[in-house]
Amino acid sequence: MASTGIVCRVFASFEGPEGAGKTTLIRGLDARLRARGVRTLVTREPGAALGGRIRSLLLEGSGMDHKAELFLFLADRAEHAATVLRPALAEGRVVLCDRHADSTVVYQGYGRGLSVDQLRAWNLFATDGLTPDLTFLLDLPPEIGLARLSDKDRLDREPLEFHRRIREGFLAEARREPHRWVVLDATQPPERVLEQAWQPILDRLPRD
After folding, report:
1. Is 113 exposed, middle or buried (0-12, 13-18, 19+ CB in 10 A)?
2. Residue 188 CB: number of other CB atoms within 10 A?
3. How confident is the model at residue 7 (pLDDT cuts 50, 70, 90)?
4. pLDDT reported for residue 157
5. Which residues contact 101 (CB under 8 A, 6 or more apart)?
6. Which of 162, 182, 179 is nearest to 171 (CA)?
7. Is residue 134 part of a domain?
8. β partners of residue 135
9. Structural domain of 136
10. Residue 140 has pLDDT above 60, yes or no
11. Digit-coded pLDDT (tens) for 96-121
């Protein structure tokens, strides 16, 4: 990783349903940060060295035991936190991560019915306590998000009621930690969503 640029340690995660525009928002924020000379890292989960293989297992095919699904996510998260997230933050980068621990709490907890409290504890164990400074929730009705998808993976093909539980789960988690979460209306044009997300990031950059 290069050593030049503004040092600013910020860990921002991006949550919400598929089709909400997380990738577009991350790209927009990354471009603005780089234009200001801020060093960034854009990553995703599953996303460690193991992430490609785990991602295929998780998102392709059909049925999978709920506990097996959970532990695959946690294995990737542990590796990702240790080998990607912590080193980037130690270098003073702004890390923009497409999904993190909150996805597991919501999808496996609110969606699959596993213990939310246990999931929070396992996430903390997997990351050695690493949590985002900011979490952006791109919120929209699941019917809209799913309609935007041209290629649906295993989770996208779950029944609509599952996706409704996911939405409510994300909103419940945002209400639980309002100091960390920023809820964005993802039915708005992407440029409007970018403007609303930029200020919380800007507030954490060095003033000089």
Report:
1. exposed
2. 15
3. confident
4. 63
5. 13, 77, 120, 123, 124, 126, 127, 131
6. 182
7. yes
8. 13, 181
9. 10-202
10. yes
11. 999 999 999 999 999 999 999 999 99
Residue 207 lies in a domain: no
Tokens of 123: 């996430």
The answer to whether position 65 is within a domain reads yes
pLDDT at 143: 82
| pLDDT for the residue numbered 115 | 96
CATH of the domain at 188: 3.40.50.300
The 3-class SS string of the chain reads: CCCCCECCCEEEEEECCCCCCHHHHHHHHHHHHHHCCECEEEEECCCCCCHHHHHHHHHCCCCCCHHHHHHHHHHHHHHHHHHHHHHHHHCCCEEEEECCHHHHHHHHHHHCCCCHHHHHHHHHHHHCCCCCCEEEEEECCHHHHHHCCCCCCCCCCCCHHHHHHHHHHHHHHHHHCCCCEEEEECCCCHHHHHHHHHHHHHCCCCCC
Strand order in the sheet with 10-15: 40-44, 94-98, 10-15, 134-139, 181-185
Handedness of CA 125, 127, 133, 135 (dihedral sign): negative
Domain annotation covers residue 5? no
**Antiparallel, parallel or unpaired: β 134-139 and 181-185:** parallel
Average pLDDT over residues 28-37: 96
CA dist., res. 96 & res. 109, Å (int): 24
